[in-house]
Amino acid sequence: MKSLSVTFVELPATSDGKLYGKLSDDVYSLVRLPSRAIDLLAATAIAAGYADTTAINPAFNRVRGYFTLEQLKRIITSDVVGISAITRTARQSYELADYIKRINPASIIVMGGPHASALPEDALAHADVAVTKEGECTLVDLLGHIANGDEFSDIAGIVFKNKGGGIIRTPKRPFLTNEELSALPFSTYSKEVLDGITHMVINTSRGCPYACEYCAVIENFGGQFRFLDIERTIEAIQHALSQTRKPIFFGDDNFAAAPNRTKTLLEEILRRGIKMPPWLAQVRVESANDEDLLKTMKRSGCARVCIGFESINEDTLKLFNKRSTPEKNSLAIERFHKAGISIHGMFIIGADTDSKETIKETVKYAKEKRIDTAQFTLMVPLPGTKMTEKLEADKRVISHDWHLYDGHHILVQPKIMPANELHEAAAMAWLDFYSFKEAVKHLFYGNEHWYNCLVRIWGKKLAQKSFEEKSYYHRALAGLDDWRNKIYGEYDSWMAKIDIIATDIKSDIEERQNTARLELERLIKTIAEKRIRVDGFFAPYKQKILKEFEDAIYKKITEMDFLGSHRYLVPVQGIII
């Protein structure tokens, strides 16, 4: 077996999607977490016998976002480079993969993470192998095959390019069992990472059965909850605390998915006298139904819960398949606050049921319910979700520039309002919630009144800066709305013109027939040339619409009864008339 040098890399989000672009400065940058992927994968590889393995995250370097010379040398000389990416970091991850291949063609590039799982062919334009879903067991299998020089076709859970350049998709790998999750090693982080994070992260479960339309969790981790056992979870917490005493974020998609298990875990923490730093977790509103759970959470150090309320509109909740109601949301807020636990509320705006008024009502609700902190993110058509499949089928996704998939850019053509108006409404939502007026109010109530006051001041400045930087996108959206209105008007006139041409072609006068055919040829050329000439923002989306128009017009032409003996070739796209 050949010894391997293995390097795992995860890149930070950048505002332009470039490898060394300006780091994104948005709501997600307020809480800096270590990677939940590359350090665990590195620990898994080391445990499997690949000692020459390391993880690199340039987000925590002294010059944030840039590799050190030592790191760069390590990356380009490694036998295997594993790059983990979410959708918004895919573009710069591909740029890194291309760079490595130019310098070291023998290096095997492995892409993993949610984006590669949903769009493996996209990843394989830059990598040799895409690992789908959970990667720990797949990784060990893959490294063994690479070390032995074996073919990859019997490795479950990957998509790869064979020697001929063909794409091979192997059978899916089953999700890890409870026992397999509990057997995984723990991540150990470098000093740079530990110094740079604001919170340590611990995952005690994977999966979710709720199947919300917009969410990619089921796609990546399955529709059933799987848990580390209690003893292993305690060990994970102690391992984390041995590295840092910074606040802990339990990264489970629903930390209280099994309330009795959560209570048992927290009671065991209390029984053993483990001194927990303040901690926060993601939960659903149903968690608030268990008063004992809330008391135990508070006693064990829970400072804040993150809850995806998504909307105050019942129609929107149904559209999202959220399995919740506005009444449940309100009751949960009341009970968590009563228990002394702060709330970070997460809302999605821009649904098909949203208007300016509903967005204003959402912010008003968040303020009146005294939600401690909140985010108002625009719909993100993440690859692989049910919502995205429907939106793509309806041709409403206006951009596939992956770095824009951050919740702060409009990516879906709205149903009720123009896109640029939705952009304005989103900006006002942030600036209304994070305002100086609201900051002063929170000095006098809440569980963390000083923090909630300061975060509103900070949030206002961040929101203002963010939307000023995105003013170019706002202008592009306005231009897109104008273009759509104009092009749909032209389409109607084109279809009407065909009706007139059809009448002339059927005429017994040969001159009128010839003139009509020439007019039809000019019309088809005009549409095709419009599509070819489209450039700038949203060009692929515009081209898709124009291609639809071409197809619809061609279908109408072919259905007319004047074709017969008058068929001739128009030299655009090989269309025969």
Describe the structure.
The chain folds into three domains: 6-169, 3-Layer(aba) Sandwich (Rossmann fold); 199-433, Alpha-Beta Barrel (TIM Barrel), CATH 3.20.20; 475-576. Helix 15 packs parallel to helix 17 (419-433) and helix 21 runs antiparallel to helix 22 (539-559). The protein starts with 5 loop residues before the first strand and ends with a strand. The longest helix has 35 residues, at 471-505. The protein is of the alpha/beta class and 577 residues long. The strands form four sheets. The protein has a seven-stranded mixed beta sheet with strand order 2-1-3-4-5-6-7, sandwiched between helices. Strands 8-11-12-13-14-15 form a six-stranded parallel beta sheet. It has a two-stranded antiparallel sheet with strand order 9-10. Helix content is 47%, strand content 12%. It is globular, with a radius of gyration of 27 Å. The chain has 22 helices and 17 strands. It has helices spanning 38-47, 69-77, 90-103, 114-118, 120-124, 136-148, 178-183, 191-196, 217-221, 230-243, 259-271, 291-299, 314-319, 326-338, 356-368, 386-393, 419-433, 436-441, 449-469, 471-505, 510-533, 539-559; strands at residues 6-10, 53-56, 80-84, 108-112, 129-131, 158-161, 167-169, 200-202, 205-206, 226-227, 248-250, 279-283, 302-310, 342-349, 373-378, 569-570, 575-576.
